[in-house]
Amino acid sequence: MTVGPEAGVLALSGRLDTQAAAVLWPKLMAEAAGGPVVLDLAGLTALDTTGATLLLTAEAAGHGNALRGAPPQVTDVLDRVRAALAAPRPKPEQRLPLLARIGRTSLNAGRGVLDGIGFIGELALVALGTLLRPWRLRGGEVLRHLDEAGTRAFPLTLLLGFLLGVILAFQSVIPLRRFGAEIFVPNLVGISLLRELGPLMAGVILAGRTGSAYAAELGTMSVNEEVAALRIMGVDPMALLVLPRVLAGILVMPVLSLVLTLAGLAGMALIMGLFGFPLTTVTQQLSQWLELSDMLGGLFKACFFGLAIAAIGCRAGLGAGRGPRAVGDAATAAVVGGIVSIILLDGLFAVLYEKIGV
Amino acid sequence: MSETTVSAEAVIRCEGIAAGFGSNILFRDVTFDVKRGEVFVILGGSGCGKSTLLKLMIGLVPPLAGRVTILDTDVWATEGKARLELLKRIGVMWQQGALFGSLTLLENVEMPLAEHTSLSAAARAEVARAKLGLVGLSEAASRLPSEVSGGMLKRAGVARALALDPPILFLDEPSAGLDPITSAGLDAMIRDLSRTLGTTFVVVTHELASILAIGDRCIMLDKEAKGVIAEGDPRRLREESTQPTVRAFFRREAA
């Protein structure tokens, strides 16, 4: 591909294919924008559509620019691309004025809240209906979800709980030692695990492992129109898909929370052992200072964490838009929504327990 | 249509290829040439291995035996840079379009240009706009794949396959799932691109109307025979073939 010299005329010769056009593009466009230029095409041996786009863009770039002498082997491509470029450009999307945008955003947000309330109501109706007719609950489905959300999460929960106990005990033993108060480490770690950290960390595990899985699974099902197919078959997706998952979430969370707490206490006992306190001292300290109500309070709120995480995961999945990105968005929404909801719920329970004196 | 001047040069050569999964042989000893500038159709009933043959030609599914040569390069014996050079010289339109869902149609077409050329962003946008214009989608350029119809998806798939102006385009089932009018529009577009750009097309399809409208030459695969049962101009095959399966196919009879 070469460019010949002549005043006001650029003579092109050789093959003008994609690679050549990419090299030539900046030079030719600079010339074309500068002043009236005639492009002489007589020497071209081949032209592809990218090359033709370059020639036609250059022609349109300046007033008085022209193409001349196109040999027959390139006229077909040139004419075809000329027609293609002549088609109208897409209309730029009209931007709404600021006020209208604020309005639309708040309308959408409001609709989202209403949808959420509707979802809770629908779920409650289905749950009540199932209470009246318990044989309609799909037991097999519930068991499958209990296994997937529960037993399969045990290794991770044990590991995380143990490490959490080790870290908490180690971090508190060092400052408390300065006052000779290491003996109170079991109280500190025990209370925080039983009442707060056990349910919260188990909730984070459930949101990350299971909430996202629910959103991805149900999201893919709605993208593939499987949810619509269920509705048209007269099967309520709430009863078939959502209820077993939510039930599994409610049942599995206290167990995960307990497993995590026990593993944490074991980790704490290990650290105490390393600092010279025998196991009996640790258990004595725990039984003396901890009450059953501490544990039951933690497990009770864990049920609500499980309900929130599973319901938010299912809702994100069923509300997924179209395309592969929608499924990813739904999974993200499930994890973020799940974690935020358990922290909010935890705050509510703190106030509630304070009021009733647990 | 069939009067298109076709030079005798073969751009694709398949020699004695066989394919299958495990002990299930789909076809064996398939040999044919695709010549420069023609629209070559691979046809046959469901399950005869048409799509597998296409995937084997573009280097996705390995053949059990035989050799595929595209533009004098052995598809299954090249690696690294030589293979990349070969891939830049073929374009594929996938059966479902396979457009990237998070990008607009224009960005989909720009992607190969961004990867393989030194064009600036503004130049890329202009080139991509021209390719979308070639397939009649100028006005939908800023839409996402999920916002356009099935026929438009296939056109956009062709535009993306055309991004680097490859001399050979492979189309997998262009008319599958389309209504007859949209399908005919797509056929007209294929003929038009073949005539004006001189691109060689390899089209896998079982749509009779489409085969007769676009095909310069075809081969027909058959599940029972596990191989090619007919080769030639589809219009002549319809009139003259005596092979019972070929006759049944072209006359839409139950075999």
TrEMBL record, chain A:
Kinase in keyword set: no
Write down the Pfam families for this protein, in alphabetical order: MlaE, STAS_2
Query: Gene3D superfamilies recorded for this chain?
Result: STAS domain
Q: Could you tell me what this protein is called?
A: STAS domain-containing protein
Q: Which residues cross the membrane?
A: 113-133, 153-176, 255-279, 299-318, 330-353
> Which GO molecular function, any one, fits this protein according to its record?
phospholipid transporter activity
What keyword terms does UniProt attach to this protein?
A: Membrane, Transmembrane, Transmembrane helix
Mention any one GO cellular component term assigned to this protein in its UniProt record: ATP-binding cassette (ABC) transporter complex
InterPro entries assigned to the protein according to its UniProt record, in alphabetical order: MlaB-like_STAS, Permease_MalE, STAS_dom, STAS_dom_sf
- Superkingdom is Bacteria
Residue span(s) of domain STAS: 1-56
UniProtKB/TrEMBL annotation, chain B:
Q: Which UniProt keywords apply?
A: ATP-binding, Nucleotide-binding, Transport
ABC transporter domain location:
12-248
Family matches, as PROSITE patterns: ABC_TRANSPORTER_1, ABC_TRANSPORTER_2
Among SUPFAM superfamilies, the record links this protein to: P-loop containing nucleoside triphosphate hydrolases
Q: Which GO terms describe its molecular function?
A: ATP binding; ATP hydrolysis activity
Locate the transmembrane regions by residue number. none
| Xref: Gene3D superfamilies | P-loop containing nucleotide triphosphate hydrolases (3.40.50.300)
- In terms of domain of life, where is this protein from? Bacteria
Looking up PANTHER family in the UniProt record yields: PROTEIN TRIGALACTOSYLDIACYLGLYCEROL 3, CHLOROPLASTIC (PTHR43023)
Q: What is this protein called?
A: Polyamine ABC transporter ATP-binding protein
